[in-house]
Design goal:
Layout lengths: L11 H35 L1 H17 L1 H19 L3 H28 L1 H6 L8 H12 L2 H16 L3 H24 L10 H25 L8 H33 L5 H38 L3 H28 L1 H5 L6 H15 L2 H16 L3 H26 L4 H24 L2 H4 L4
Helix pairs in contact: 1-2, 1-8, 1-11, 2-6, 2-10, 2-11, 3-4, 3-7, 3-10, 3-11, 4-6, 4-7, 6-9, 7-8, 7-9, 8-9, 10-16, 11-12, 11-14, 11-15, 12-14, 12-15, 14-17, 15-16, 15-17, 16-17
Length: 449
């Protein structure tokens, strides 16, 4: 593949297909952003200590649903190909396996995280006086693991079968429950005095549970038939999904190591952790649209390969990258230049704001490479090349980000700013590596199915 592949693509059918599949996913992600922003905002009204706890337990919660996210990648790769070639019986079979696996694995992790919440929180070196509150928060959050697994796999099913708006509708209902629930359950309403910080977690549990029930009902209505487990189909899902699980464990594990570096910054650690939490939330203004395109591209690439069209798969991914970079450029520029204004939306603590501004400006400077990693990562995973994506993430996170962050922040005494730079450099390597992988042929030869 030559560099001329990045000429301006004006294939309106491809653009329409990308938009049609990405806007509902972006809507779902915006709903998640709104919920996450509300969590941090409500926590900030209580205090920056609670913001730090919400950020840490949120990362642990995301770590617990990695297998579900990996199953979603495998489900999209397999179901989209079957759907693309019109094999509806195989589609039904694959959906059955995915839903059953999501319930079994989600239930197991719910119990494990809930029982060992205190021990899990203690692993990350936070202040002793924060551990009891963080453990309680995580224990409540763990209840949401099972319904979230159902929502994740269900959303993958809807995307792969051309119904992304259904996931959008369900998550919209969940958000309408979650956002006001955050305020009501935390601060109270009328004669109800509220539950304090725990109300943030309980609101999430209730909202996701409603969403999970709606997901199961919708799948059952659209794909009627008996659930028949197939050893061959289960093996296919596991074969495609396990590298994605390793990828996500590696990435999230790297984030948690960064939290340990932040916790090692002495009296500044809680401020730095709050800044990291806020920075991730604000940076998501860029990476949420990019991830929406990532998921749309994964589906469209899978369907194209199911129809036997490698050229269409290439064209869709290249088009998606080009227009995503162009479309998000104004947002990146705004975040960079107006960072002091933007960070004030999440915190009024001057030191937290100052550190968050550094995070935003350093990371937005690498934004085109972030988009490159996300879009082409979606393309190669949608093709079933999850092992290729896994190798790239392992290299970028564990051979660059983690050691470089430790060197810059602790050995060279750059503090939190050293961690922000390490994140940027590792993202640059990740983006270039994903692009080079896509230029070759290994990404579409990795999976035969």
């Amino acid at each position: 593949m030559e560099w001329r592949s990045f000429a301006f693509f004006i294939n309106y059918e491809d653009i329409r297909a990308i938009f049609r599949n990405s806007w509902p996913v972006l809507g779902v992600m915006l709903f998640n952003f709104i919920v996450g922003y509300t969590d941090i905002y409500v926590a900030g009204l209580i205090g920056y200590r609670v913001q730090a706890i919400v950020g840490l337990t949120g990362q642990i919660f995301f770590l617990s649903i990695i297998i579900g996210n990996a199953m979603a990648v495998g489900t999209v790769a397999l179901v989209s190909r079957a759907f693309g070639r019109g094999d509806l019986e195989e589609v039904k079979s694959l959906i059955s396996q995915g839903v059953v696996l999501s319930v079994l694995i989600g239930s197991t992790l719910l119990g494990g995280v809930g029982i060992f919440s205190h021990e899990i929180v203690s692993l990350f070196g936070i202040s002793e006086n924060l551990i009891p509150e963080a453990a309680l928060f995580l224990r409540i959050f763990s209840i949401a693991i099972l319904p979230n697994y159902i929502l994740i796999v269900g959303s993958a099913v809807f995307r792969a079968t051309g119904m992304p708006r259904r996931a959008f509708t369900i998550m919209g209902i969940s958000t309408l429950i979650n956002v006001p629930g955050n305020f009501i359950l935390t601060f109270g309403l009328g004669s109800f005095n509220g539950l304090g910080a725990a109300g943030i977690a309980y609101s999430t549990v209730i909202a996701l549970s409603v969403g999970a029930v709606l997901t199961i009902w919708s799948i059952a209505k659209s794909w009627k038939g008996n659930i028949v487990l197939s050893k061959e189909r289960l093996k296919q899902i596991v074969h495609i999904s396990w590298p994605s699980a390793v990828l996500q464990f590696a990435f999230q594990g790297g984030i948690l190591v960064l939290y340990k570096y932040l916790a090692a910054l002495g009296s500044y650690s809680t401020i730095a952790m709050a800044a990291y939490t806020n920075g991730i939330r604000l940076e998501s203004i860029i990476f949420l649209p990019a991830f929406a395109v990532n998921m749309a591209v994964g589906v469209l690439v899978g369907q194209s390969l199911g129809r036997g069209s490698i050229e269409q798969a290439r064209r869709i991914a290249n088009t998606a990258f080009l227009w995503t970079v162009i479309g998000l450029a104004p947002i990146a520029v705004f975040l960079f230049w107006q960072a002091p204004l933007v960070v004030g939306w999440l915190s009024n603590h001057p030191d937290v704001c100052l550190e968050t501004v550094k995070y935003i400006r350093i990371n937005t400077a690498f934004y085109p490479l972030l988009v490159m990693s996300i879009v082409f990562g979606g393309a190669i995973q949608g093709a079933g090349d999850t092992k290729g994506a896994m190798k790239i993430i392992l290299l970028a996170v564990w051979l660059v980000r983690v050691p470089l962050a430790g060197i810059l922040s602790i050995l060279l005494s750059w503090g939190a700013e050293g961690i922000w730079w390490a994140m940027g450099f590792s993202m640059a390597l990740q983006g270039v590596s994903m692009f080079l992988r896509f230029r070759g042929s290994a990404w579409y030869r990795a999976f035969k199915g």
